[in-house]
Amino acid sequence: MNILINADDFGLTQGITDGIIQAHQSGIVHATTMMMNGRSVPYAVQQAKRFPELKVGIHLVLSYGRPLTTTTTTLTDASGQFRFTNQYTEQTPPATEDVLTEWSAQIDAFLATGLPLHHIDSHHHIHGWEPLQEVVLELARRYDVPVRFVSTLEDHPEHALTKTLYTGFYGAGIYLDLWEELRSLDAESVEIMVHPAYVDADLQDVSSYTDYREKELALLTALTLPNDMTPLTR
User: Fold this and answer.
1) Domain total for the chain?
2) pLDDT (tens digit, 9 = 90+) per residue, 209-222?
């Protein structure tokens, strides 16, 4: 089985960024994805360039902070913040042209750092929202990069990063036998989504998922890859 252990939220805070670097340098994290409107993006770029073996993709955002563009009015509330929450499926979808404009700006900002773009995924899995399917496919084609597996990509496997995504390494699920969980999927390739971090004041300010991140970090630096699993080379 080919696996990709991928850490979300790179650049959101310095504590998250440092935790991900530690989980890569001393653990089993292979990749991460950066939030271009995060609080520590310049620092994250600097760290990524220190560790070029860490694959870095983009964590597209519609449900945290402010957009990079200023004309995407269907994306924002009266304060100029993104109006979506993690319950976005219950909200009115945005205009797809606004999403395409904003997400293109986020990807272009990533490319301007000089880092190679490994893949696309998103905060709160919003790229899997059915109304945004065509936007995601357009970005995959335009930038020629794979996309984190979501159900809306089932009919477009040529654009999927892996055959499936494992989201169970989260909260109390981090104490399950990860390797047996993956074997039960019976998939050729799997991405494992993780969230290691050091808890800092910024993290406590922006996320309710805090202490578990440090517990994830401890586990990800203690686990070793079994012989029947190899890192994804893509």
Assistant:
1) 1
2) 999 999 999 999 99
Residue span of the structural domain in which 213 resides: 2-231
pLDDT (tens digit per residue) in 123-157: 999 999 999 999 999 999 999 999 999 999 999 99
Helix axes 14-25, 211-220, angle to 10 degrees: 20
The domain that holds 116 is classified in CATH as 3.20.20.370
Residue 66: predicted pLDDT: 95
Confidence tier at 72 by pLDDT (50, 70, 90): low
Mean pLDDT of the region 38-57: 97
